[in-house]
Amino acid sequence: MGTPTTFISLFLILVILCTSTVANGDHPDHAKPSKGIRAAYWPSFNSFPASSIQTSLFTHIYYAFLLPDPATFKLSITSDDQTKLPEFIGSLLNLTPPVKTLFSIGGGGSNATVFSEMASTKQSRQVFINSSIEVARKYGFQGVDLDWEFPANVVDMSNLALLYKQWRNSLDEEAKACGKPRLLLTSAVYYASEFQVYGGPRSYPAGAISKYLDWASPMCFDYHGSWENFTGEHSALYDSKSNISTNYGIRSWIQAGVPAKKLVMGLPLYGKSWRLRDPKVNGVGAAAVGVGPGDDGILLYYQIVELNAQSNATVVFDKQTKSYYSYSGTTWIGYDDVRSVALKVRFAKSLGLGGYFFWALGQDKDWTLSQKASNAWKYGG
Ligand SMILES: *[C@@H]1O[C@H](CO)[C@@H](O)[C@H](O)[C@H]1NC(C)=O
Ligand SMILES: *[C@@H]1O[C@H](CO)[C@@H](O)[C@H](O)[C@H]1NC(C)=O
Ligand SMILES: *[C@@H]1O[C@H](CO)[C@@H](O)[C@H](O)[C@H]1NC(C)=O
Ligand SMILES: *[C@@H]1O[C@H](CO)[C@@H](O)[C@H](O)[C@H]1NC(C)=O
Ligand SMILES: *[C@@H]1O[C@H](CO)[C@@H](O)[C@H](O)[C@H]1NC(C)=O
């Protein structure tokens, strides 16, 4: 048994450990920075080195992605991961200020059926959960993230609730047993709390999300793309004609009962391009005959900045959606720039959200948008 002094200092250390998840970074003397989550995903499959992450702009960095083995449901650590996981953790440990590290399981390219099967029995969920803990502890992560895109029906959604519950219980127990801080549990989710497309109507388990997750991260992007024959702002803050907007999505989460503080809003560092049918008809919703430059019409922010400069593009701030678009000849690109990112971050703050995240590191132009978002969050700038 310890003396009262050791007890008190232990208690203080615990308090510091438990409250230091969000606050760090450089702050000028005149303003007290807002706390909150400023996160970003690091795609392990790209060439952007983790060692060059400017950690003052972030609080949490996600390694993206790990996948469950389709037969065993244990996380499969590929030979690439075997190199990159320790590299990622090692690089970030060397950077100041420190950030928390999580790995994300799944991603847009992963097989949703595997997640559906994994989540369908208590036993398979436990194998998956145990494996996530084992990997997190082995490499020194502070949290785990699920990015199941997407639960396809109401059965998947109720199994997802069971998974969150079982996972959180296991994390609590493991922390108690090993005496380490509990691993964080977060999840990337659809921009809205319910699906009206891609299969039958279904809603996320808002109760389980509120109770068992540290936060959920609505992916407020990809609203429009190559599947459409008209131009669109793929991360529109507002849309007067449809529910496909960040304003609608975030409010649907709050309406569903998830506390605003547990929502971390997604921001894209990429845009979507189209080829205009008529260069003179070039607004949002203009007729398009296919995608423009980029990978299936996806252009990264730094590529957009360069392309706009090279092509002398006309750049427009669209007041309705609070987004940007540029056009030059038949090329049209919808994206976020400094002003729209600041507006979105202010929107997130005004609703009392827990923070924001970017997809993805390596896509910004000299940290321009990351810096703007961070300042807007911390100081309202
Ligand atoms: C997805 O996983 C399921 C179950 O393992 C498998 O049957 C299916 O072939 C997979 N689909 C693809 C596209 O790999
Ligand atoms: C998961 O881990 C716990 C704690 O170590 C252990 O008791 C349990 O048997 C494991 N379950 C599975 C399915 O691996
Ligand atoms: C938007 O969502 C609301 C429910 O949240 C629904 O009543 C309305 O019909 C939807 N509007 C459109 C255009 O889909
Ligand atoms: C887009 O395609 C739909 C159906 O294929 C068609 O009805 C519509 O007129 C097209 N719109 C434009 C702007 O070309
Ligand atoms: C771009 O615009 C500038 C000034 O408006 C002009 O001097 C230049 O020739 C233009 N370049 C191209 C590639 O159109």
Automatic annotation (TrEMBL):
GO BP, sorted A to Z: carbohydrate metabolic process; chitin catabolic process
Gene Ontology MF terms in the entry: chitin binding; endochitinase activity
Signal sequence, start to end: 1-25
Origin superkingdom: Eukaryota
EC number: 3.2.1.14
UniProt keyword terms in alphabetical order: Glycoprotein, Glycosidase, Hydrolase, Signal
PROSITE patterns noted in UniProt: GH18_2 (PS51910)
SMART domains according to UniProt: Glyco_18
GO cellular component: extracellular region
Record-annotated GH18 domain positions: 36-380
Family: Belongs to the glycosyl hydrolase 18 family. Chitinase class V subfamily.
Classification via PANTHER family: CHITINASE, CHITINASE 12-RELATED
UniProt-recorded name of the protein: Putative chitinase
Taxonomic source organism: Rosa chinensis (China rose)
